[in-house]
Amino acid sequence: MYARIAAGLLLAAAAVGQTPGGGQAPDPVEEDPGLIISVESKLVVVPLHVYRKNNSVGGLDADAFELLEDGVAQNIAFVEGPAGPGEDPNKGRTVPTEIILLIDVSHSVIKPGLLDIRTIRSAMLDGLREDVSISLYGFACNLKRFSGPTRDPAKLQAALEAAYAAEAGCSRVYEAIMQTVRDAANRGGNVSRMMVVFSDGFSTTDLSTDLVVQSANAFGIPLYPVILGHEQIVDRAYRGGSGHRAPANPNAGGPWQLRTPTRNNPNAGNQRQARAREQESRQKEFADIGLQTGGRSYDLSVINNMVIRRILKSLATLAQTEYVVGYYPSSVDEPLTAHTVEVRLKNQKVGKLYGGRRLIVH
Question: What pTM was estimated for this model as a whole?
């Protein structure tokens, strides 16, 4: 069976350049000549997490879940996830995990040193299963793949150095996300993927975030936007020398929200505050693609290596505690039709399920 994703979700991604970059000499990503993208896949894999009282629930098997396609129950082929009590936490999995790091290098949005190989190694690689790999992409005016999936620190170091050297003046945030999703999916294989996007969220194009969300959900890749520069916007608009300080971490563990000053600042003009609110709204749109794709967002009050390290550790934990549920669609429609796939817990007392949704076409 060939699962086909309609190009209406992805045509905007063609605006992003496909120049291979870095010292890795990756294969060029070629544009599909037709109006559809074909991905060979007999097995559909749906990623999800299960939590109870903020703790991951491990050891669940197929009997704990039900999988629905357009509301009709399907046979679950397999379930893989975190170990339960008494099980080996490092046991291998047949479906590997790829963590995609997508870095906005426009005007050095993320500064060299914030994300380095020592941080990636200590916060992620050293504690991850052997089947978890990291790939690295960078974008400004164009998207470049600096490293495919790897655990080799030398390759990741070279990729980071090349990404930081690729600074440019524009920032096609959403085209870059969509094209990275497409490039990762076109590499094929039954792989669970998650994408971390480091950016201030200020795209220099008008591509709708709805298309980004649809594309990520179609390929089952949850997004984790890391918002850079929010605090500076608040500083410029609201503090103005008054001594007002925004909360240190107002959005930890919850949805991103606009920050409102606790008191009026007489030194901050209405025009400056209006501009700040507009910028915050744009950043909120960027942050919201996290929850809408089964991921979450990270709003940084302070931007330094220590904070980035904590984020990477959080993402490593998510990779370690992820479930993947697989099934084989029972039929192929003619013409091809979009189908909504949802995984649920049979017993709600087990915990709360996050993610577990995909849009597929067959």
Answer: 0.79
